[in-house]
Amino acid sequence: MIRTYTFNADELTPSPAEALSYLRIKGTPDDATDALLSACLAEVGSIADCRCRAGVFDLAFADSIHPVLRDSWLRGCDRFVLFCATVGIEIDRRIARYALTSPARAAVLDAAGGALVEALCDKLTERLSAELAPARFGARFSPGYGNFPLAAQRQVFSLLELSRIGVGLNDSLLLSPAKTVTAIMGIKT
């Protein structure tokens, strides 16, 4: 069964270190960058629309997504979780607006949005782990990673009916809103 989950951004803890890594900043940022990052993390949290779709499937169903899954990423698993997490379109709109008026803020807001969607993935994983206890999850990976081709995004999009949470897929296989992640995790019982 595929379910929709919603989260309040206040429940999430986006990692400033992760946002800095997206900005390719190593070490401690200067005071101005640190202040801008804090402001941008607060801003994305205030405008985020955190929604997810997730389903648990038998291992045999993995072949219908892509044949490489069962023999590589899901080896040794009994089932798997397929999910999508998005923080909504308003972050994209703000980034586009700031790109015209404050490119630095646009870049930092983009990084903060990336950190927020990763925090959302972590929160969803935490919720699913509680629902499926005592099962253990394997690593999370997405279409386009390793030998799991980006083309599988079509099957993921269709199977999870991602338009139900406001997610689109273009001809280049990019999801919109931009701060959207699809992923799969093996389950071992």
Briefly summarize what is shown:
This protein has 189 residues and is an alpha+beta fold.
What would you say this structure looks like, in words?
The structure is a single chain. This protein is of the alpha+beta class and 189 residues long. It has one domain (2-188): NADH Oxidase (3-Layer(aba) Sandwich). Helices cover 43% and strands 22% of the residues. The chain has seven helices and seven strands; from the N terminus they run βααβααβααβαβββ. It has helices at residues 16-22, 31-47, 62-65, 68-71, 90-101, 103-131, 153-160, and strands at 2-7, 50-58, 79-86, 136-141, 168-169, 175-176, 180-188. The strands form two sheets. The protein has a five-stranded antiparallel sheet. A two-stranded antiparallel ribbon has the order 5-6. It starts with a strand and ends with a strand. The mean pLDDT is 96.
What's the shape?
Answer: globular
Q: Give the biggest beta sheet.
A: 5 strands, antiparallel
Rounded to the nearest angstrom, the radius of gyration is 17 Å
CATH level-two architecture: 3-Layer(aba) Sandwich
CATH topology group = NADH Oxidase
- Structural class category: alpha+beta
Number of domains: 1
Q: What are the main properties of this structure?
A:
7 helices; 7 strands; 189 residues; five-stranded antiparallel beta sheet; NADH Oxidase; alpha+beta; single chain; 43% helix; globular; two-stranded antiparallel sheet
